[in-house]
Amino acid sequence: MHPFHHAKSRPDHPAYTMAGSGEVVTFRQLDERSNQIAHALREAGCQPGDTIALFAENSARYFEVCWAAQRSGLYFVCISSRLTTPEVQYIIEDSGAKLLIADAHKSAVAQDVKSVTKLDHYWSIDGDIPGFTSLETHQSKFPVTPIPDEMAGTDMLYSSGTTGRPKGIRPPLERGLPIDADNVLVQICRGLAGVTDQSIYLSPAPLYHAAPLRWSMSMTKLGASLIIMEKFDAEKYLQLVEKYKVTHSQLVPTMFVKMLKLPPEVREKYDVSSLQFAIHAAAPCPIPVKEQMIAWWGPIIDEYYAGSEGNGMTWARSADWLTHKGTVGKPVHGEVHICDEQGNEVPVGEEGQVYFGGTVPPTYHNDPEKSKGALHASHADWSSLGDVGKVDEDGFLYLTDRKAFMIISGGVNIYPQECENILITHPKVADCAVIGVPDEEFGEAVKAVVQPAPGQAPSEELAAELMAFCQANLSKIKCPKSIDFDPELPRHPTGKLYKRLIRDKYWGNSKSRIV
User: Fold this and answer.
1) Could you read off the pLDDT of 94-116 as tens digits, one per residue?
2) Are 430 and 453 in contact (CB under 8 A)?
3) Confidence category of residue 284, pLDDT binned at 50, 70, 90
4) Are 45 and 69 in contact (CB under 8 A)?
5) Which of 80-94, 95-109, 370-384, 487-501 has the highest mean pLDDT?
């Protein structure tokens, strides 16, 4: 399925509604506007297999751009609206984007990016940006009918690289693939989530993230009507469920925490009985939090484990989770293999690296070593996200550690080496480590442990100086919320940092953040 089918059968039905502004975009409007933008992209020289970048906050224009790229056979790179100029510049240049579309709310960064990049075109949405062409005005001169050479494009999202720089996940494009072809997630939405053209889907998260983007677009393919929150607010989420009789939603555990922290009288005054299905992933969910959510909403809360790489997926229904608490489920895409450091499969119940087999391994753009490193040494179709886990006698997977000490704060993946690479350049820093530490609301918070340079004494003033230094070079979410000092960080004579020893001071031996 595809929005153009629903534009023919139900042209005036809402494809999505913006929760804050109330703006409604019908299936006909979505189809016509995405067609116009597709024509504009072709005139701009974007051909199948090319890449465009979108740097925007949630808005009614977001999906018009994404569906235009999807029906034009393009890769569309959705860039976090929280990133700084150097970070946006890197992703644009690394991805090979030919064109940048930015929203007016990001005008300052967008103008800076334009001054340091050399793209073919710069377009603005949701208002004007000096030096950019207004896409809303530009697209109006193009026809609302499809371009003659439609083929399915796809997203190109960014994950971490071995150097700490994010790496693009660039799946192969099948030339000539129809724009309405099914994919694995569409099949899952239809089969496991029970999505129909009568479903109402509430998306509370930034659309530049993999899960909100992909779940929303899959829902639209199936004809569901979306409610898009510009920004998550716990009480507002419950209001929207009641107002629109929401049936389906995708969340992250920190949203559960915020809703559970509302006063009981606030939580109880909203009718959430319309909810038929809620799915969560992206971060470990504390067992007590999930128990409380199931008690509140009923056994409608499912969970999955997967990566942006799309190389496999496990799934846990509420009923299965209640009898296997802490599990992330059984495989629904690919099969799971648990292997030791030598690549041998381990017995049931033993921990090892988690591999998905029988699927297409990930391809990291401009990083063949990372692509190779994701593969099993003896099985070309086994690939890993680097996580450690175990499988029980019933075949349920449990994660027991996260890849490469990645920090997951509020469902957002934060790769500490980016921050470490900035901190180590400060003249008052001799060595540093960035880790995730327990945080009641977000699961983890970013902390830096710094070894001061000779002659520098630890102090609150130094900590403040270092945090300001980070924030001048990185988006705030990647920067430390706190800094501790250590006279000497534990390093092997070869130079390897024993980060686990540092982290264990804050976590102890508990792995409760994962299981």
Assistant:
1) 999 999 999 999 999 999 999 99
2) yes
3) low
4) no
5) 95-109
CB count within 10 Å of CB 50 equals 20
CATH code of residue 60: 3.40.50.980
User: What is the total count of domains within the chain?
Assistant: 3
Query: CB neighbours of 508 closer than 8 A, spacing ≥ 6?
Result: none
**8 A C-beta contact, residue 299 and residue 322:** yes
Domain membership of residue 236 (yes or no) is no
Whether the CB-CB separation of 314 and 355 falls below 8 Å is answered with no
**Same-domain check for residues 426 and 386:** no
Contacts of 512 (CB under 8 A, 6+ apart): 286
- Looking at the domain assignment, is residue 274 inside a domain? no
- 397 and 424 fall within a common domain: no
375 torsion bin: left (phi>0), alpha (psi -120 to 50), beta (else):
beta
pLDDT band at 164 (very low <50, low <70, confident <90, very high): low
- The verdict on 51 and 141 lying in the same domain is yes
Give the Cβ contact number of residue 464 at 10 Å. Answer: 11
Residue type, 421: N
Whether 214 maps to a domain, the answer reads: no
Query: Using CA atoms, how far apart are residues 338 and 187, in angstroms rounded to an integer?
Result: 26
DSSP β-bridge partners for residue 301: 278
AA identity, residue 438: P
pLDDT in tens, 438-481: 888 888 899 999 999 889 999 999 999 999 999 998 899 899 99
Q: Are residues 392 and 433 in the same domain?
A: no
* Structure tokens, 353: 């690296």
Query: What is the pTM assigned to this prediction?
Result: 0.81
Query: What is the torsion angle, in degrees rounded to the nearest 10, for the CA atoms of residue 314, residue 158, residue 170 and residue 228?
Result: 70
Beta bridge partners of 51: 75
- Chain centroid, CA 438 distance in Å: 21
- What is the DSSP secondary-structure string of 80-96? -TT--HHHHHHHHHHHT
**Distance between CA atoms of 366 and 51, rounded to whole angstroms?**
14
The domain of 421 spans 407-507
The pLDDT value given to residue 53: 98
Among residues 179, 214, 239, which one ends one of the domains? 179
**Span 41-57, mean pLDDT?**
97
Nearest to 70 by CA among 184, 12, 146, 17: 146
Find out whether 416 and 404 touch, Cβ atoms under 8 Å.
Answer: no
217 is a domain residue: no
Cα 244 to its chain centre, rounded Å, is: 25
Per the CB < 8 A criterion, the answer to whether 383 and 361 are in contact is yes
pLDDT at 402: 63
SS3 call for 243: helix
